[in-house]
User: Fold these one by one.
Assistant:
Number 1:
Amino acid sequence: MDKETENSQTKSEIQDEILLAALTLFAEKGYFNTSLTDITHAAGIKTTSGIYQHFKNKQMIASALYTNIIDSLNISIDDIRRRNQKSSEQLRGIVDLLFKLTDDAPYVMQFLLILKINEFLPEEKPLRETAPFVKFIKIIETGIKAGEIRNIDPLIGYAYFFGIINSTLSMVLSGTLGKKADAYQSQTWLTAWNAIAKK
């Protein structure tokens, strides 16, 4: 392995460490209560200037995190759509994914659902306008056309359906609900689906 490849791998690994440390701190303390010094220490970097070799500022770190999470979610939703034909099956797959992420990667879900991203990333698209959530709305549109979902405005359908999912997951993440997300998954799915399903 040549030195340039070795250095680029090391740089990539350091960036990943910074992003992971920032994600943890943003979820635990909030964006505004987390300093670059906090991220430096948590990432195991000697000085704050070590962070500047990778990111210009804390906002750039948050932006990279948001982009990575949205991109990953987008790939997962594409995969779910490829594997399932009916809108109900696709929505169920997405719900399964979101509940699994809440239990397995709670900081990722806190970043998406609990933190007010528009307060510290005003230039980024709000969650509802990102690619994975636009696909969510398209699934609802397809379900309406296929007669699986009642004839309502797709955005209203999204608000009813995702509002129930979001509220449940937010209560799990905040500790309002005492069990893991998995314990509430089937009843949340039924309630969300019944809110939009054609009877």
Note: The first helix runs from residue 3 to 29.
Number 2:
Amino acid sequence: MRDSLSPFVIEQETSLVDAFRAIDGNKSGFVIVADDDGHVLGTLTDGDIRRAIIAGVDLSASVSASKAYRADFIALSVDQGIDDAIDIFKQGAIDFIPVLDGNGRLANVLQKKQLYSLLLQCENASLGDDFSSVDGSLIDFEVFNRPWGIYKTTVLQDKFQSKILQVKPKSQLSLQYHNYREEYWTVESGMGVAQVGESRFALVPGSSVVIPRGCKHRLINTSETEYLVVSEVQIGDYFGEDDIVRIEDDYGRAGD
């Protein structure tokens, strides 16, 4: 077993309180329960421990005696593929999968966030790879509010990123340009106008607009009642908010 898996493995005679400490230490919400020979017996989550406490189990009790761990866990063989992991994670309630060798010992652990991060980065992977360095937080993008509405980043990579923009009725983004990226807009719902250079284009669901690097542009929602929802793909060398050069702005941000 590789060293990176050690924080995720406890023995069956470990106390519940020590199991809780292990879960707190690995910051992933679970551990794998193994016997003295390293054979995997089940999985234990922080939720399983909380339910055991509510049921009256003493925290000093061993994991085995408490019967808190799940012996009916779902696992994969190291010889299976990433597609098998995707099918399991589609079930929704599963956030991690133990990967076992031919003798039932732990060969790997794959977390859903790690897998989705790999897929979004277009990385090829196998269940035998070391996933400890995969940053699962890449998929945890916040929703940001702006005076004109909200946006959420959906993919962020070195050379491209994508966002969903929701523009409030009768609102518009600043007239702006970018030095380091080009943008591609596709309208998902609503209606509006795209200004690109000196040209203006009517927007309806399905409309697509290309904004070259350095070209001034603006997105305008012309509806009185409906949000304008746009999928935006950016391709370039840098995607920081400080690459927004505002020429005109309804909210006093021109020149920022």
Note: The first helix runs from residue 16 to 26.
